[in-house]
Amino acid sequence: xxxxxxxxxxxxxxxxxxxxxxxxxxxxxxxxxxxxxxxxxxxxxxxxxxxxxxxxxxxxxxxxxxxxxxxxxxxxxxxxxxxxxxxxxxxxxxxxxxxxxxxxxxxxxxxxxxxxxxxxxxxxxxxxxxxxxxxxxxxxxxxxxxxxxxxxxxxxxxxxxxxxxxxxxxxxxxxxxxxxxxxxxxxxxxxxxxxxxxxxxxxxxxxxxxxxxxxxxxxxxxxxxxxxxxxxxxxxxxxxxxxxxxxxxxxxxxxxxxxxxxxxxxxxxxxxxxxxxxxxxxxxxxxxxxxxxxxxxxxxxxxxxxxxxxxxxxxxxxxxxxxxxxxxxxxxxxxxxxxxxxxxxxxxxxxxxxxxxxxxxxxxxxxxxxxxxxxxxxx
Amino acid sequence: xxxxxxxxxxxxxxxxxxxxxxxxxxxxxxxxxxxxxxxxxxxxxxxxxxxxxxxxxxxxxxxxxxxxxxxxxxxxxxxxxxxxxxxxxxxxxxxxxxxxxxxxxxxxxxxxxxxxxxxxxxxxxxxxxxxxxxxxxxxxxxxxxxxxxxxxxxxxxxxxxxxxxxxxxxxxxxxxxxxxxxxxxxxxxxxxxxxxxxxxxxxxxxxxxxxxxxxxxxxxxxxxxxxxxxxxxxxxxxxxxxxxxxxxxxxxxxxxxxxxxxxxxxxxxxxxxxxxxxxxxxxxxxxxxxxxxxxxxxxxxxxxxxxxxxxxxxxxxxxxxxxxxxxxxxxxxxxxxxxxxxxxxxxxxxxxxxxxxxxxxxxxxxxxxxxxxxxxxxxxxxxxxxxxxxx
Lengths: 379, 391
Prior knowledge:
The structure holds two protein chains of two kinds. By secondary structure, chain A is of the alpha/beta class. Chain A has eleven helices and 13 strands.
C-alpha cells in the first residue's frame, strides 16, 4: 500500500534528490555572483553556462537563446509584453486561445486595456484548436500569436509546430510564442524547422527542479523590448542577480529527464490507461481529456460530486489531486467552460497529473478510494 | 524627561462601590497587553490610571497603539512628569510639546490642581504657562473654544504632569468584567464583529466553530483560527472549540426534509454550543445574526433556533445593515480574512429553497426521527480545543 499518492504533478513536482543536493552545494559552496570579477564569481558563471547549455540541449536550440527567468509566468510575461511592444508599429492584434494558462490570459488582458485587439480562439469539445482556426484568425495587423503546447487542465496537445510552419510562410513578420510548460521534457519538443517559434516558455518546478526558476527561449535575432530593467543580467531580458542554484538544478533535471523521457512516457501511459479503464467501469464518470491527449494529464468528472469535496475526501486518504475548477464558489474552470462543457460537468471535474514517481500499484488504491467517495457523496 | 501614559477610564468612573473591581480588571488587561513592550507600573488616582515604564527606552508609541485596543479606556495620552516647580513646569511644557505647538496656529492651557498645597491656583497656572508659551512661540494665538492644541497641566500629589491633546480610546468596559460568553464563529464577516462588540461590553469571549471535512477544508478552519487571532487584539486570549460536524450534517441530509436543512442544522449548532458553553463557565451565546439577512435569520427562524437554547443568546449586530457591519470589520481588521473564498459548513448541502418561515412543530417532528443525543454527544466528545492569542 503506497504511503501517499501524488497525482498533482502538473501543479508541481517533488524536487528530485540529485537536484536538491546540487542546490545545497550551490548555496553553501559555489555561492558567488556570476557578475563578480573574482574567481568565486567566475566559478558561478561557469556553472550557469553549463546549466544554460543543458536547457538548450533539451530544447534543441543554442545556449545563447536561453534566458533564465523566475518561472513559467515570468517567461510568459516577458515574451508577450516584450514582443508586443517591439511590434507596436506593425499592428495591434494578438491571437491566442481561450484556454491558455492565466499567465498568458491575464497578460494579454492587460494589453487589451492598453488598446490592443485580442482574439481568443475557442477550442472544440476535445480541447483542440486546429491550425486552420489560427490561420483564419491571423491577418496583416496581427503581430503576435501565443499558443500553448499542451493544455494544463485537460492535456490536449495543440498543433503548435504545424501552426508555426504555416504562419511563417504567410506572415514572415509575425512573432509566435508558445507556453510549453506542460510539454517540456514530457512530449517531443524540438525547436527548429518542425517547431518554428520565436519564444517558448518552460518552468523548472514541473520537471523536478525547485520552484522559482524557469527559462525563456528567444530565437536569435528576434525583435524584442525588455520589460524590466536592471544590471544587465541575462542580456537584459531578465535582469537581476541570477538564481544560479535554481538554474543549475533545472539544467540537471532537464538533462536527466530527457534521458528518461521515453521510459517515463511509456510508464505514465500504462498508468493512464489503467486508470482510464477503471474509471470507465464506474458509473457516471465523464472523461474530459481527449483520447489523443498527453498521458501525463487525465481529467474526468464524477458527476454529482463537487470537485472540492472529492478532493478533500481523497486528501484524507493521502491522495492528492487537483480540482478542475479554480474556485469552489461558482467559478468553474475557464478551460472546461471554454470547451463548452456544461456547468455540472465542469463543477465536478478532477485533474490527475502524473510524474516519474508514480507507479502502477497506486492505480487500484486510487480507484477504490474514488469509488468509496462516489458511494458516500452520491447518496 | 520622564514620560508616562495616562489612561482616562470613561464609563467605569460612573460605577459605584465595585468600581475598583473594574479598574483592577482594566489594569490586568492593559498589563498583559503591554507585556511585549516591557514591564510597567500602574497607579490609580481619581478616574485616571498612570502607566509608568519600569525602565527607560521602551517604545511608548507602540505601547499607546496597543492600549488603544484595550476596552475600558475612554481616552489616553502620553505625559511628561516634572517636579512641582512652576518655572520647571513652564520650560518643560515648551520643550515637551514643541513639535505640536510649532505646527499649530491656536492653543489654550488647561490646569488641574488636585494638590491644594501648590501655591498657584488653576487659573494662575493657565495664565502663567500661556504667557510663557506665547513668548516662546510668537506665531501662536490663544483660542479657548476651538484650539488646535490643548496644553494640560495637572498638579497632583507627587508630581506635575504635562501633556497635549488626548487620543480616543477603545471605549467600553474591560474584557472579563462581565463574565464569559461563547461566540459561534463561522468565518464570515458578521461573527467576528459580534464577538468584538460583546468584548467591548466587558465579556470574555470563547469561540466555537463547526467543521465538516471533507466538505470543508483545512484552509477554511485555518481561516477561522486567523480570524480569532485578529480578534485577540481586542478580546485578549480566546479559547476555541472546533466541533466535527460532518456526521450530523450527513444525518440531516439523509433524514430531514430539504427545506428544513438549514434551520435544523442551526438548532444542532445551538444545542452543542450551549452544552460546551455551560461546561466551560460561559453564561451566554453570541452570534452574528442580523434580521432578514438570510433564510435562517428571519425572526421566525430565530424563534426556532432560540427554542433550542437554554441560555441567553446575544446578537449584537441584529439590527445592523451589512455595510455597517463591514465598516466595523474593516476597523478590527478581520474583513480581508473574512472574504477569503473557502467553503464553510453553513454552505454545505444548502437547500435550493430553504423555508424562510419555519414552524417549530414541523422542525421538531423532523428532529424526533434522528438519534439526536447520540449525534450530539459524539460530536462533543471529539471537540478539538485551541488556545488562541496574538502575542
